[in-house]
Inverse folding.
C-alpha cells in the first residue's frame, strides 16, 4: 500500500473507532475527551515495538509528516475548526454584555498562568525560562465544555456560563499569541523590547479582528444573496474559517486566531438572519461535525505519543508534572479567588458564591487546543530535542492529569458542595408543579378513559412522582410571602425567556428580534436567580434603558457625523420596546391564569403590580420615540399587525384542512401564497433620523424670511445635534458658548423650579450670548430632539449681517426675561 493510502486508511479508521466512543461516554457520564485520551494511549502502547526502537505510532505520525502534515500543518488543519465552532456556539449578545470583563479575565489569566508556570518550572527542572514559559502558554488555554455542561445541568446563572465560555474563547487567542512570540524568541530572533511586544500584540489583535470581521461580513452578504443554496452557504462558512485564519497568519502577519474567532462571532450573530432555518440547522450540524472530527483526531494523535513519551520520560519528569499541576492550581486560584471577586465588586461580572468559585478553580480542564499547541511545539525544529520532549511530556502529562483526575472528580465535587441539589425554592416549585399537573392530567385521563370505556388509572401512575406524600409534603411546606413572591417572579421570568420563541414560531418575530428578546429574558431570569426580587427589578429596569450599543452609536455619530449606526440602533430599540409591550401584556395574562395556582392570589397581584410598572416604563420609552418618529412608528406597527394577521390566517387554513374542508393541495397552495406574503413583508424599513440640514432649517420660523443665499450662509454655520431623552443641554450658571434651535422634539427650561416647555421651531440659549451673562436656567430634552447649534462666533457674524434676526431673537429674550421671577436685566436689554 502506498503512503497516502496508508494515511487515509489510518485517519478514517481512527475516526470510525473514536466515533464509537461518543455513545459510550454518555453512558458512563464522563467527558468524551477522557475516553479519547484513553483510547489514544492504548493504541500508542499497542504500537510500541517490543524492542521499543521505532513505534508504529511514530511511523504513522512520520508518514503524516511526510504527507505534508508538519507542525504548522497540524495547527493549520485543526485550529480553525476548533475555534470557529467554539465562537459559533456562544451567545454573542450575552457575550457582548460582559465583553470587557471577559477579555480582561482571559488575558490576565493567560499571563498569570504563563508567568507562574514558567518561573516555578524553570526553578525546579533547570530547563531554560523560554521553554518553561512556552509550556505555561500552551497549558493556559482552558477547555470549559465539561464545566459548562455541568452548569447547564444544575441551572447555574447563564451569565456565569457565558463568562467561562467567553474566557475560554479569548484565552485561546491570547495564549496562541504569546506562544507565537515565544517560539520566535526561541528561534533566536533578537529580543524585542516589551513595548515592541505590546505594540505587535495590539496590532496583531486589531488587524486580525478587522480582517475576520470584513471577511465574515462579505460572507454574510454572499449568503444573503444565495438564499436557497444551503450547501453553498454552509461551505462558505467552512472556507471563511480557513481563509481568515491562513490569510492572517501566513500572509498578513496578524492574528489568525482572532480573525477566526471574530468571523465566527459575526456569523453567529449576523449570519443567522441571512439564511433560512434549515440552512442554519445544517450549518450548525456541519460545524459540530468538524469540531468533533478535529477534537477526536488531535486527541488521539497526541495521546498515541504518550507511551513513547513515557518511555522516554525521566523519573524527574513525573515530579515536574506534579510541580506543574500545583503551579497551575495556584495560578487559577489567583484568577478565581482574586481577580473574579474584584471584577464582581466593580460590578463587571456576576457575584460568585464560594461553591461556584471552587468548581471554576478545579474545573479548568485542558482540551484540544492545548494538545494541538503541544504537538506543534514538539515538532518545532527551533527547540532542542530535549526541550521538544520536555514540552510534549509536560503538556500531555498535564492534559492527562486534568482529564483523568480533575474531570472524573468534578461531579462528586459538585455533589459535595451541594451544587447539584435543587435549592429549597426549586424543590418547592417542583412539588407544586407536580401536584398541579397531577390534578390536571388526572382529570383529562379520567375523561378519556371514560370515553373509551375503561377504568381510569390512578393518577399517581400518570405522574409517578406525584405520590400523595409528595403532594401533602408540598402543601405542608411553609412559605413566607417573600418566598412566594420570588417563586412567582422566577416562574414569570422563565416564561418571559421562552415567550419570544412562541412569537417566532408564529412568524411574528424575526430571528434577529428573537435573539434580542431571548437575551433580554435571560438577563432578567439571571437577575431573579442571583438576587431574588431586587435582581428582577434591577434587570427589568436595565431592560428598558437604552443599550450600551446605542450610546456607542450616539458617540460615533457625534464624533464623526456617521448616522447609520445610530438610526439602526434606534430602530432596534423601537422594535424591542414595541415587542416588550406585547410580551409583557401576555405575561400579565399568564400571571393571572397560571401563576396564581402556584403561589396564591395575593402574590400574583403583587407580581401584576411589577408587570404593570414595567409596561408603563416600556410604553413611556416607546412613546418618546413615537412622538419623534410618528411615520416610522406607524409603519412598523402596521407590519406587526400584518404579521399577526398572517399568523391567524395560517391557523384558519390549518383548521379547515384538519376538518377536511379543503384538500391537501389547496392547503399547500394557500400556504404558499401566505408564505409569499410573509416574505414580502420582509425586513423593517430604514429609519430616517431627520438630520438633514435643509430639512431641519425649514422647521424654524425664524429662518423663513431668509433668501437662498442667506439659507446657504446659515447652513454653513449650523451644526445638527441629536439629543436623547433627559439629556441636559444647558446647565444654569455655565458660560454660554452656543445657542440652539429646535428642529424637532421639545425641551424643558427650568429656572429655579419655574418650568416652561419649548417646542419645534423655538430656540434657547440666546440670553447668554446676547447679554454676555451666565446661563440663567437648566435646559433638558424631554424626548428625542433634533437641535441645531450655533456657536457664539457664528452667532455674532450672522446677526451683524441680518440685524432683523438679532431684533427678533432679542425680542423673545426680553419677553422671557419679563416672565422670569427676579429677572435682572442684562446690559443688552436695559
Ligand atoms: P441662556 O441664559 O443662555 O440659557 C438658559 C436659557 O433658558 C436661556 O438662555 C433662555 O433661552 C431659556 N429661558 C430662560 N428663561 C426662559 C423662559 N421664561 N421661557 C423660555 N425660555 C427661557
Amino acid at each position: 500500500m502506498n503512503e497516502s493510502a496508508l494515511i487515509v486508511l489510518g485517519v478514517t479508521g481512527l475516526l470510525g473507532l473514536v466515533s464509537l466512543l461518543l455513545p459510550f461516554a454518555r453512558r458512563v457520564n464522563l467527558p468524551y475527551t477522557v475516553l479519547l485520551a484513553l483510547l489514544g494511549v492504548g493504541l500508542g502502547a499497542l504500537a510500541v515495538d517490543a524492542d521499543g526502537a521505532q513505534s508504529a505510532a511514530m511511523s504513522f505520525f512520520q508518514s503524516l509528516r511526510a504527507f505534508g502534515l508538519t507542525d504548522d500543518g497540524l495547527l493549520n488543519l485543526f485550529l480553525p475548526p476548533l475555534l470557529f465552532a467554539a465562537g459559533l456556539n456562544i451567545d454573542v449578545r450575552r457575550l457582548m454584555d460582559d465583553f470587557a470583563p471577559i477579555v480582561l479575565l482571559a488575558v490576565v489569566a493567560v499571563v498569570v498562568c504563563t508567568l507562574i508556570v514558567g518561573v516555578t518550572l524553570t526553578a525546579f527542572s533547570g530547563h531554560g525560562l523560554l521553554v518553561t514559559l512556552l509550556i505555561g502558554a500552551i497549558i493556559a488555554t482552558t477547555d470549559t465544555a465539561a464545566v459548562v455542561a455541568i452548569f447547564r445541568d444544575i441551572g447555574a446563572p447563564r451569565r456565569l456560563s457565558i463568562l467561562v465560555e467567553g474566557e475560554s474563547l479569548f484565552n485561546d487567542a491570547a495564549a496562541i499569541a504569546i506562544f507565537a512570540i515565544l517560539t520566535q524568541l526561541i528561534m533566536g530572533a533578537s529580543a524585542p523590547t516589551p513595548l515592541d511586544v505590546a505594540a505587535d500584540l495590539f496590532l496583531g489583535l486589531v488587524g486580525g479582528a478587522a480582517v475576520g470581521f470584513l471577511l465574515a461580513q462579505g460572507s454574510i452578504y454572499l449568503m444573503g444573496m444565495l438564499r436557497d443554496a444551503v450547501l453553498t452557504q454552509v461551505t462558505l462558512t467552512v472556507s471563511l474559517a480557513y481563509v481568515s485564519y491562513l490569510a492572517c497568519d501566513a500572509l498578513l502577519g496578524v492574528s489568525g486566531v482572532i480573525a477566526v474567532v471574530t468571523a465566527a462571532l459575526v456569523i453567529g450573530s449576523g449570519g443567522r438572519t441571512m439564511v433560512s432555518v434549515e440552512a442554519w440547522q445544517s450549518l450548525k450540524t456541519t460545524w459540530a461535525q468538524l469540531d468533533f472530527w478535529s477534537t477526536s483526531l488531535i486527541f488521539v494523535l497526541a495521546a498515541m505519543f504518550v507511551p513513547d513519551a513515557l518511555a522516554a520520560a525521566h523519573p524527574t519528569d513525573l515530579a515536574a508534572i506534579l510541580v506543574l499541576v500545583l503551579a497551575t492550581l495556584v495560578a487559577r486560584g489567583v484568577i478565581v479567588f482574586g481577580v473574579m471577586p474584584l471584577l464582581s465588586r466593580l460590578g463587571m461580572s456576576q457575584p460568585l458564591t464560594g461553591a461556584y468559585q471552587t468548581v471554576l478553580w478545579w474545573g479548568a480542564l485542558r482540551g484540544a487546543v492545548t494538545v494541538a499547541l503541544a504537538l506543534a511545539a514538539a515538532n518545532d525544529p527551533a527547540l532542542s530535542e530535549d526541550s521538544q520532549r520536555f514540552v510534549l511530556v509536560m503538556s500531555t502529562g498535564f492534559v492527562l492529569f486534568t482529564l483523568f483526575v480533575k474531570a472524573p472528580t468534578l461531579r462528586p465535587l459538585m455533589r459535595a458542595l451541594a451544587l447539584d441539589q435543587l435549592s429549597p425554592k426549586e424543590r418547592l416549585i417542583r412539588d407544586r408543579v407536580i401536584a398541579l399537573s397531577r390534578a390536571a392530567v388526572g382529570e383529562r385521563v379520567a375523561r378519556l378513559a371514560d370515553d373509551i370505556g375503561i377504568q381510569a388509572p390512578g393518577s399517581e401512575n400518570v405522574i409517578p412522582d406525584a405520590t400523595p406524600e409528595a403532594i401533602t409534603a408540598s402543601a405542608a411546606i411553609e412559605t413566607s410571602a417573600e418566598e412566594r413572591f420570588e417563586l412567582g417572579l422566577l416562574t414569570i421570568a422563565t416564561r418571559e425567556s421562552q415567550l419570544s420563541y412562541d412569537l417566532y414560531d408564529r412568524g411574528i418575530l424575526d430571528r434577529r428580534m428573537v435573539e434580542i428578546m431571548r437575551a433580554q429574558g435571560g438577563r432578567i431570569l439571571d437577575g431573579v436567580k442571583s438576587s431574588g426580587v431586587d435582581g428582577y427589578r434591577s434587570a427589568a429596569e436595565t431592560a428598558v434603558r437604552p443599550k450600551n450599543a446605542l450610546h456607542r452609536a450616539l458617540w460615533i455619530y457625534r464624533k464623526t457625523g456617521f448616522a447609520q449606526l445610530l438610526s439602526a440602533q434606534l430602530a432596534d430599540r423601537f422594535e424591542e420596546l414595541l415587542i416588550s409591550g406585547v410580551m409583557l401584556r401576555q405575561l400579565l395574562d399568564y400571571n393571572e391564569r397560571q401563576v396564581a395556582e402556584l403561589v396564591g392570589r395575593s402574590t400574583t397581584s403583587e407580581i401584576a403590580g411589577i408587570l404593570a410598572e414595567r409596561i408603563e416604563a416600556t410604553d413611556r420609552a416607546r412613546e418618546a420615540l413615537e412622538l419623534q418618529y410618528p411615520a416610522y412608528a406607524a409603519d412598523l406597527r402596521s407590519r406587526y399587525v400584518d404579521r399577526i394577521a398572517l399568523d391567524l390566517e395560517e391557523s384558519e387554513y390549518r383548521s379547515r384542512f384538519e376538518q377536511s374542508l379543503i384538500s391537501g393541495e389547496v392547503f399547500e397552495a394557500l400556504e404558499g401564497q401566505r408564505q409569499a406574503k410573509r416574505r414580502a413583508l420582509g425586513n423593517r424599513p430604514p429609519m430616517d433620523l431627520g438630520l438633514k440640514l435643509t430639512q431641519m432649517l425649514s422647521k424654524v420660523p425664524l429662518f423663513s424670511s431668509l433668501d437662498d443665499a442667506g439659507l446657504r450662509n446659515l447652513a454653513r454655520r449650523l451644526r445638527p445635534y441629536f439629543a436623547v431623552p433627559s439629556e441636559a443641554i444647558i446647565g444654569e450658571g455655565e458660560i454660554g458658548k452656543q445657542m440652539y434651535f429646535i428642529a424637532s422634539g421639545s425641551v424643558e427650561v427650568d429656572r429655579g423650579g419655574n418650568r416652561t416647555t419649548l417646542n419645534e421651531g423655538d430656540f434657547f440659549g440666546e440670553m447668554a450670548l446676547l447679554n454676555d451673562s451666565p446661563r440663567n436656567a437648566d435646559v433638558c430634552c424631554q424626548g428625542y430632539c433634533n437641535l441645531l447649534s450655533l456657536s457664539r462666533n457664528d452667532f455674532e457674524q450672522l446677526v451683524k449681517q441680518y440685524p432683523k434676526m438679532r431684533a427678533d431673537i432679542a425680542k423673545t429674550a426680553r419677553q422671557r426675561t419679563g416672565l422670569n421671577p427676579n429677572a435682572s436685566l442684562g446690559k443688552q436689554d436695559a
In short: The two ends are 107 Å apart (CA to CA). The longest strand covers residues 738-744.
